[in-house]
UniProtKB/TrEMBL annotation:
An example Gene Ontology CC term for this record: cytosol
Site (Important for catalytic activity): 220
EC numbers for this chain: 3.5.4.2
Name of the protein in its database record: Adenine deaminase
Residues engaged in binding substrate: 276
């Protein structure tokens, strides 16, 4: 089964590039940039990863960004992720980035997006892995800040396939960003938003992303199973759900294997993703292998999960066909 999983051509649709920052790279960049980390070694840094909910994870995730300063840092971060993904037979990936996590530290938007883009182009040429970029807004920042960042992205629209919404969901509902997402849609960008597992008002948030924002996909969205009506809407609109099993384990102590199987049984387009693989210590193969073990998934179910991912990618329809 492990060989089957490793050999499958895979698509990943929910991975935060800042969440792929490996401790070894953190140390290398800290040294290069003259930044002192409050740990003696990469192992000590990993030992300090103490997540039990979304806020406790986000604190560590944002602190980790401090070593990313110049274009070459964003290039190396992205190149290393794409190299790792390609080594796991990921043939296509849609990558999130969080520009506000960098502009708020004085790093220019252009520095961030140019470093990421150059690595994407090189990785496609040299490693054969195709990728597209999704700009996320931090939902615990203001709608005005999100709008400013959308405007900053205007000269780079050709490098973006869509926009997303991440960070702390508590009291930050999707409707807060209604105008920002409406403008992004007008500009031809695809839309997705996080509805993380077990957040306050999660069913309201899932309803808003579908009915008010009109998203093309939902990130996580596992709690939709609590409402037959929402499940039916998700099936009717053929919305992909980018589920992240190992990430879920930090919040609900389970890889949500039962929930993922229920989604498949209901005809929902569930997909498997790594979210923040350097922090959760699991890339695509590890997510799939652990999920298969927890839920005793068959090869046919795993194939369905991966076919779902290719179906709900934001590739042109004619390009999708090559993978299905
Ligand atoms: N930022 C990075 N990973 C995230 C996640 N899983 N949920 C919300 N915001 C995030
Ligand atoms: Zn995420």
């Amino acid at each position: 089964m492990q060989a089957f999983i490793e050999g499958m051509p895979k698509a990943e649709l929910h991975v935060h590039i800042e969440g792929t920052l490996e401790p070894e790279l953190s140390f290398a960049l800290a040294e290069k940039n003259g930044i002192e980390l409050p740990f003696d070694s990469p192992e000590a840094l990993i030992a300090a990863y103490d997540f039990h909910d979304l806020p406790s994870f986000l604190t560590i995730y944002y602190a980790g960004m401090s070593v990313l300063i110049d274009e070459s840092d964003f290039y190396k971060l992205t190149w290393d992720y794409l190299e790792k993904a390609a080594s796991q037979n990921v043939v296509y990936t849609e990558i999130f980035f969080d520009p506000q996590g960098h502009t708020s530290r004085g790093v220019a938007f252009e520095t961030v997006i140019t470093g990421i883009r150059k690595a994407q182009v090189d990785a496609e040429q040299k490693l054969g892995i195709r990728s597209q970029l999704i700009m996320c807004f931090l939902r615990d920042m203001s709608a005005e800040s999100a709008m400013e960042h959308l405007q900053m992205a205007k000269p780079y629209l050709g490098w973006l396939v869509g926009v997303g919404l991440d960070s702390d969901e508590y009291n930050n509902p999707p409707v807060k960003f209604k105008d920002v997402f409406a403008l992004a849609k007008q500009w031809g960008l695809k839309l997705t938003m996080h509805c993380d597992v077990n957040q306050k008002n999660t069913l309201d948030h899932i309803r808003q992303v579908i009915e008010v924002i009109g998203v093309d996909r939902i990130d996580h969205g596992v709690n939709s199973l609590e409402s037959d009506e929402l499940c039916e809407l998700i099936v009717e609109k053929q919305l992909g759900l980018t589920v992240c099993p190992v990430s879920n384990r930090f919040v609900v102590q389970s890889l949500t294997a039962n929930e993922i199987r229920t989604m498949l049984d209901k005809g929902m387009l569930a997909t498997i993703n790594s979210d923040d693989p350097a922090y959760f210590r699991a890339y695509m193969n590890e997510n799939l292998i652990e999920l298969q073990q927890e839920g005793d998934f068959s090869q046919s179910e795993l194939k369905t999960l991966m076919a779902n991912a290719f179906k709900v990618t934001w590739l042109p329809e004619e390009d999708k066909a090559a993978y299905l």
